[in-house]
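Sample pair:
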Amino acid sequence: MTFDPDTIIHKFDESYSGFHFYDLSFCIPNYLDGCSIGVTTSIRILHQSVGQTNQQWEINRQQFVRQWGDELPITLPPPYKELNPKLKSEPKVTVIIPTKNNLKFIKDNMYSWRNNVIYDNYEIIIADTGSSEDVIKQYNEFLNDKVRLVRYDYYNFGKINNDVVKNHVSADTELVLFCNDDIYLLNDALSRVVQIYNENENKVGTIGIRLHYGDASIQHNGIIFFRDAENNLRLSHRDIKKTENYATGVNYNSLGNTGGFMLIKKDLFLSFNGFSEDYIECLEDVELNLKCRNQGLKNITVSDAVAYHYESVSRNKIPGGDERFMVDYQRLSLFIRENNIKI
């Protein structure tokens, strides 16, 4: 391991005894504070250590977990490029983020907007669905003239987002962007999706981006339907779980995009009366995408705009998620049949 002493922020932690975890306890705080970490495979070294653990290893492991456990797991981000899109106009965007007691993730979400988004003409509405008062008080850290709070005492994804759009967005809002609280932007995805909207204004339905799980594998790169071995219609995301060889361009003929990060024209959204409020767990976003396509509009997935979606922290918190999903999937299947939707 080599490093530039002029760029590191943290020195080695001398509280670790022996030969274990001195390296991780050096790398992680420097990485978290902005130092890049790289690995080269062009230098070959034979390391003759047998690699056995011992009592001191276990002591140091416990110390390490106490010190850095809240930051784990840590993975290097997926490949992405910085964006500097040229915009012919900057229509007003309202970003809607439902949340409940996910303070760490909503804070990180806010941080990622502040540090990655150059686009200026937007507002964020945090739709809190029943957080504790202690959590609510800590929202003051990021509430300002661009970020405001609306409170609810229930959770229904479709109903809450519909209410925000109908009753709380600014009058001059042209576009609404639905965003989960566990999204963390890696580049200026907002400017990029607005650029795509400007270029396709009269023929676009929804616009989404490439999303990665916390382990850097693909969570979403567009919605897909496929037939299983029994010829049953199934739903998934393009490139799901891939860590390489996934799409990185713009798909102008995407089936649709997840409501975890989805841009749509406000008037178009309201023309559908918003999301269907009949779904229990999910899939109201899929129905909305299919309605757009049924009107001859294009759903577009912009795969060079990138974010993390730590979906595991926001799904299946309440037991019975699989059963609720199957009920919702049957409802979506009925919608497809009744409306003669072509997949």
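The CA atoms of residues 35 and 339 lie 53 Å apart.
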